[in-house]
Amino acid sequence: MAKVSVYNMEGKEVGNMDLNDAVFGVEINEHLVHMAVVQQLANNRQGTQKAKTRSEVSGGGRKPWRQKGTGHARQGSTRSPQWTGGGTVFAPVPRDYSFKLNKKEKRAALKSVLTSKVQENKFIVVDELKLDEIKTKKFAEVMNNLKADKALVILGDMDTNVIKSAANIATVKTTQTSEMNVFDVLKYDTVVATKAAVEKIEEVYA
C-alpha cells in the first residue's frame, strides 16, 4: 500500500494514511485514459454547426448562359460551389458527437490517473477543509500552505463555504467524489483531497 502524509490547513503534517492499492496503485492504462478524455470533450460539443449546400442556398434556378459560343466555361447554376454566394462542398450539418464508454472502462481510467498523481507525489491529503465564512483570501492561504497552486480540490461532502471561497481563484477547481472525472484530474497539476473524500473514493472504486 502507498502511504501518504496527511496535512492540516496550516500545511503541517499531522499523520499518515495508507491508500488502497485497488484504487491508487493500479497499472496505468494510457489508452483508457485517452479514451475517457476524448469522450468527455466529445460529449461537451454542441454539434450545432451548419452551412448550406448548393441545394439549400437561394437562387441559381436558371442556366447563367448558353452552353456554347460565349467564350466562358460552361455553367449550370450560379449557386455551384465555385461561384460567389454558392453552396459549400460537404457542408457541416448538426450532429451528435457523443459516444459511450462502459462503466468498467471509466472506472479503470479514473483509477489510472489517480495512481499517476500518487506516483508523481502530486496527491495531497488534508485532514479537513472547513471555513467559518466565505472568504477567498482564507482559502488562498490554505492552498499556499499546502503548496498547491493549480489544484483540483476533492471534497467528501457539499461545503458551500469552501466551494464559494474557491470560486474566484482561476487556478483552483472544487469537486465532490461523485463528480470527479479524468479530464479534471489530468488538467490540474495537484490533487488536494480531504481525508473523508479519500475514504469515499476507496469505498466506491475499490
UniProtKB/TrEMBL annotation:
GO terms for molecular function: rRNA binding; structural constituent of ribosome. Keywords: Ribonucleoprotein, Ribosomal protein, RNA-binding, rRNA-binding. It comes from the Bacteria. The keyword Ribonucleoprotein applies. GO terms for biological process: translation. Residues 43-87 are annotated as: Disordered. GO terms for cellular component: ribonucleoprotein complex; ribosome. The keyword rRNA-binding applies. Belongs to the universal ribosomal protein uL4 family. One of the primary rRNA binding proteins, this protein initially binds near the 5'-end of the 23S rRNA. It is important during the early stages of 50S assembly. It makes multiple contacts with different domains of the 23S rRNA in the assembled 50S subunit and ribosome. Part of the 50S ribosomal subunit. This is Large ribosomal subunit protein uL4. It comes from Roseburia amylophila.
